[in-house]
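Worked example 4.2. Below are the chains of a multi-component assembly; read each line carefully before continuing.
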Amino acid sequence: MIRKKDASTGFTKRNKLLSIGLVLLLLLLQSSCWDKVEVEQLAIVMAIAVDKGENGLVRTTVQVINPKGIAGGTGKNMAGGGGGGQNQAYRNISDHGRTIFEAVRGMQSNIPRELYFSHNQVVIISEELAREGVAKLMDFFDRNPQIRRNNWLLISKRDASQYEIINAPNPLEIVPAQRIVGIIKEKERSTAYAINQLGDFLELLSCRGVDAYTAGIGLSPNMAVAESDQNKNTGSAGESLREDVNVTQTAVFRDDRLVGWLNERESRGLLWIKGRMSNASVTVEYDQKHGNVSVEALQGKGKIKPVVTREGQIIMNIDVKVKGSVSEVDTFIDLSKPENLSRVEKKLAQEIKEDIRLALEKVQREYKADVFGFGENLYRHYPGYWHQVANRWGEIYPEIEVVINVKAEIPRTGLVSKPIEMAK
Amino acid sequence: MSNKTILKKLLGFIPKMKRPVASKKPSAIPDDPVEHIFNAGELEKMEVDGRLDVNIDVLRAVMAGNSDFVLREFSIGSDVRAAVAFIDGMVATAEVHKNILQPLMTNTQKSDCGFGGTFSFQHIQDSLLTIADVRVVDDYKQIFGGILYGDALVLVDGHKKGLLVSVKGFSTRNISEPITEGLVRGSREGFTESLRQNTAMVRRRLQTPNLILENLTIGRISNTKVTIGYVRGLVNPGLLKEVKQRLSRIEIDGVMESGYIEELIEDNPYSPFPQIHHTERPDRVAEALMAGRVAIFTDNTPFVLIVPGEFLSFLQTPEDYYERYFLASFVRLIRYIALAASLLLPSFYIAIVTYHQEMIPTPLLVSVAASREGVPFPALVEAFLMEFTFEALREAGLRLPRPVGQAISIVGALVVGEAAVSAGIVSSLMVIIVAVTGIASFVNPAFNMAITMRVLRFPMMLLAGSLGLFGVMAGILAILVHMCSLRSFGVPYLAPITPYHKEGMKDVLIRAPWWAQQHRPEEISKDNPYRMTPAQKPSPQKNKTGDRGDEKVNQQRGRPFRTAWQEERKKKMEFEDYGQDHRGGDRGKSADEQNEEQNKGDKKKRRQHRVHKKK
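Applying the procedure described above to all two chains together yields the following C-alpha cells:
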C-alpha cells in the first residue's frame, strides 16, 4: 500500500506512531506520581480530639489505627483486642500548637507515617474550648480536603478527660473511635442527644437565624460491674469496665460559643421539633390506677410555622405529627378498644408536648440560643419582616410566643391487642 | 462447480500469457529436472502431448526426485498404451485398483469395442471409469493441481488430453467435539482439518441451493484451498465483493492456518482488537451465514473465519441462543462484568491503593493496609509481578505435555497462592485480585478477545500506577475512541450500540426471546431485515377476541390472523423473495453507488415499516 503523508504534519503514519511512542516513553523519566502513597505508609486517623492546652495553646490528640492489630495481618501473630505491645490496635498521639494544623504537623515527628485524615470519623472538642468559641477551630476542619463533612462532632464534658474518652478500652469494638461511631449509629434508638455531622454543624454556624447544637460525650460508671470489682480497670479483653464511654445530652451553642446543655428529655424535645425522631421510645403513664405504656415512635415529623400578627407580634406554631406502635404495657389495658387507644394517643401527645415545652424553656428562655431555627423560619415566611427585626433578633427571640400542637397516632399495637390477664 | 474453474481461480493472479499456437509439444524439458523449478505459469503453458512417452517424460521430469510419485504404465486391450499417475498416500489405492486399473485392464479384453488406436477416448470416460468425479484436462497446471490434491491421472496414448479421476483417500481426523468452544446444550460437532468435511457440515445445516460455497486457492507453494461461503440473496453484495477482493490480493508462500488469512485481510492491522471471528463450530457458521455474514473456510485447519466480526459478537456464544433467554441473558450479564473485570480490576486496585485511599470504606482500607504491611514492593510492581507469574503459569500449562502440566498447576498454586504471601513478598489481597482477574478473563468465550483484554490490562496498570484513576479513565477513553473508529468489513465495530439500532439492542445486554427478535443484525443484512414472520409469541387461543387467536378459527370468523403490516411482511419473506429483486442488476456498479442506492431503498423501507407500525 502507498503510505500517505499527512498534509498538516508531513509525518507518515508510522512516524507519527513512533513519535507518540517515544513521547510516552519520555513519561517514564518524569518524576511523576508525586502524590503516590502506598496504603501501608498511611497512619489512618480515626478520631481527632481538641483540648485546651497550656499557655493558650491547643492540644490536639489523634487516634491512629494499626491495621495489623485490627485485621491481624497474616493472622499468626495477632494479640487479643486492644492489649499492649506491638500489636495494639490503635495508638494515640498528642501535641500542642497554636493551631490544630501546627499540632498535627508537630506529631509527625513522633510517627513514621503520613497522618491521613480521610477516614477520620469523630471529632471531639472539649467543653472548655467550646465555651470560648469553636469558629476558630472549625476552620481547620472546613479547609482541609481530607476531612470529610460526615465526621461526627462531639463535645466532651468538662468532667471527663478527652484522653480517657478516646482511650477507653473496650472489648466490643477494638478502636475507641469505632466504638463511638457505633454508638452514634444507633442514635435513633437512644434519643438522649441530638447530634450533628461536621458539615451540618458548619452550616448551622454560618447561617443567620439558627444556632448550632451537637451531642456531648462523657464517661459514666458501668452499672453492670459489681461493686467489689470497681477498683479494676485493666481493660483486657472480655472484661467489663468500671467506666464506659457515654454519648449523651446536647450541647447548645449561641453564635459559636457553647452556652449550655440539654438533658436527655430536653434533647428529645429538640429532636421532636427538628423531626429527627424515629424508633424513639416514649413511656407514658396511662392513669393513676394502671401503669405505664411504652410507645415506639416510628415516625416523627416536626414543622415550625411562624405567624406575624398585625401588631407585629411573632407567634411560632410548632406542629408535630407522630405515628407509633405500642411496645410494652405493664398492666392490663385492652388496647383493642378505641377509647383506650385514643387515651394512650392523648397521653403520648401530652408527653411530647411536655418534652418540647421543657426544651423550649431551656433553650429559648435560659440560653437564648435559636437552635430550632425560628429566625430562619421567619425569614422564609416573612423575609421582609425578618430584615426589619434581624438586628434586634437577639432581644426579640426569647420573648416569642410559641404554640405547640402535637398529633399522635398509634396505628399498631404489636402482636397482642390484650395483655395477659392474670387468672384469678 | 467444476475443478477447472477452481484451477483457473487458483492461479488467477498470474498474468495470462498468450499460448503459442505452434507449440504442440511441451516446452523443452530442462537438462537437469531435479534442479529446475517449475512454476505455475510454466506448467500452464505446457499442454498434454499426443504421444504417451512424451507425457510420461514430462511427468517424470516435473516430479523428479519425488519418492511418493507413482506412475504405472499399462495397456488397454492389447495394444493401446496408457498410464495412470498419482501421489502415494493421497489416493485410496484400493479405488485406483478397483475403479481404474481393473476396468481398463481386464474388462476391455472382453469388450467388443474396436480398439487399436482409433478407439474412443469418450468411451473410457463414459463407460469404463466407475468413478463419479472425472474431469478432462489438457494442460499440466491442471494435471498437477489435481494429482497433488489426491486425484489420479489417466493418460492414453494418442490423445492430447488426460483424465483426472477423483480418488482422494488421504486420512483426516474424525469429527470430534470442538475443544475451544464447548457448551452444555447444542451440537457437539466441530470442524476438522478437511475442507470438504467442513463445508458438508455447514451444508447439512443450511440445506438450500442458495448456500454458495466458492473455491479459491491461496499460497504459491501451499496452494491451499479456501472456500468462501455465503447465502445468496442474504449477503450484502458489497461485502462479498470486498471479501473476494481482499482474498485475491493475498500472495504468499503458504497458508498454514486461517490466522494467516485473518491478518492479511483485516481492516486495521495495528488494532489490538480482533476484527474477524474464528470458530470451530459449524452451527455457529450456519447461524452467521443466515445473518448475512460471509464464512471463509481454509483447508487443513478446523478454524473457519467469519466476517464481519463486530465487538459484541465476540462476547456471544451459540449457546446463548440454545438456552432459554432468561439463562442466556443472565450469563451474558456475567460475561460483560467479567470482561470489565479482566481489563480493569488490577488497575482499579492499584489506583485506589496508591492514590485514592479515601474512596474505599474504612474496614476495607484497614484490611488492605494490613495485608500490605511488610510487602517490599509498591502495588504496581506487586501487581506486575503477580500478573506476570499468572500469565507465565497459564502459558506453561498450555504448552507442556499433559502429565507435566499438572505439576505446573501444583507449583503455581503453592508458589503463588501460599509461599509468596507467607514470605511477605506479595499481599494476600493481590493474590485474590490476580486470581479473580484470571477467572474473569477465562469467562470470555472468544479466546482472541480474551487475549486482547489480557494484553491491554498491562498498559492500564501502568496508567493506574502513574496517574491513578485519572489514568485509568484516560485509558478507558482511549480504548473506547479506538473501538469507535474501528470497522470490520465496513461494519462499525461497536454496532449496534453505536451506531444505535433499536432492534439490534435486543441481542446485546440481554438476549431477547426468539419471538421478539424478528430482525437480523441491521448493519449486516440491511436489505433483508426480517428473520421470521411476526406474531409468533406463544399464547393461548383467544377465540372470542380474535386477533391473536388460532388462524383457522379466525378465518372462519372472517377475521385476519395477522394485522395488515404483519401480513405484508410475511408476504415479503416468502422464500423466493429473499433473493432481493431490486438489487439484481446492480452488481456491475461501483460499491459506492450500490451503497447509496441501498441506503435510499433502506430508508424508504424503514419509513414504510414505521407507517405500518402506526396502523
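Take a moment to check your reading of the output against the notes. Residues 187 and 411 of chain B are 37 Å apart (CA to CA). DSSP finds 20 helices and twelve strands in chain B.
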